[in-house]
Amino acid sequence: EAQVTQNPRYLITVTGKKLTVTCSQNMNHEYMSWYRQDPGLGLRQIYYSMNVEVTDKGDVPEGYKVSRKEKRNFPLILESPSPNQTSLYFCASSMDEGREQYFGPGTRLTVT
Amino acid sequence: GNSVTQMEGPVTLSEEAFLTINCTYTATGYPSLFWYVQYPGEGLQLLLKATKADDKGSNKGFEATYRKETTSFHLEKGSVQVSDSAVYFCALSEWGGSQGNLIFGKGTKLSVKP
Question: Are A16 and A78 in contact (CB under 8 A)?
Answer without folding.
Answer: no
